[in-house]
Amino acid sequence: MDDGPALALQQVIVATLRADPALAGMVSGRVYDEAPADVAFPYVRLGNVDPQADRIGCYTDDRIRFSIECYSRPPSGRVEAGRIGFAVRRALDGAQLDPAGYTLDWLDYLTQTTTRTPDGASYVATVAFEAAMAPAA
């Protein structure tokens, strides 16, 4: 069953981040699609995923904007969240990934912001990307 390009990309991104040695050293493998309620800090989770049609001539590709959220708590807090965000950027920017059933045309870093979370106890670096995908030939 084809679950669509956004889910295919999501799965390969989580796998890629879990396998990245620099990131693993920072978050001890805590890379999630959705973090458990009792998650230990620091950790990384998939944020927003926004697929859009990219109509080119007689065919349609998918352009997908997505974010990765990098969480930390004091004493390292903001600094650690930013460092984890930069490791995510290095792992994904321009990566040649192989999503099941699709061809990844490109994957580019867009921006990163680091803020305090609404609970006031944590920081989150949100790293945004954009990717273009087409069905595999």
Write the layout of secondary structure elements.
Elements: H1 5-19, H2 21-27, E1 31-32, E2 43-56, E3 59-72, H3 77-92, E4 102-116, E5 123-135
Parallel strand pairs: 1-2
Antiparallel strand pairs: 2-3, 3-5, 4-5
Instruction: Quickly give the structural class.
Output: alpha+beta
Any idea what the CATH architecture is? 2-Layer Sandwich
Strand line-up of the largest beta sheet? 1-2-3-5-4
Number of strands: 5
Ends apart, CA distance between termini: 17 Å
CATH topology grouping: STM4215-like
Radius of gyration: 15 Å
Low-pLDDT sequence parts: none
Q: H/E series, N to C?
A: HHEEEHEE
Number of domains: 1
Look at the structure and give the mean pLDDT.
93
Largest sheet: 5 strands, mixed
So what's the overall shape? elongated
Total of helices: 3
What would your notes on this structure say?
This protein has 137 residues and is an alpha+beta fold. The protein has one domain (5-135): 2-Layer Sandwich (STM4215-like). The chain is 28% helix and 42% strand. It is built from 3 helices and 5 strands. A 5-stranded mixed beta sheet has the order 1-2-3-5-4. Strand 2 and strand 3 form a beta hairpin. 28% of the residues are buried. The mean pLDDT is 93.
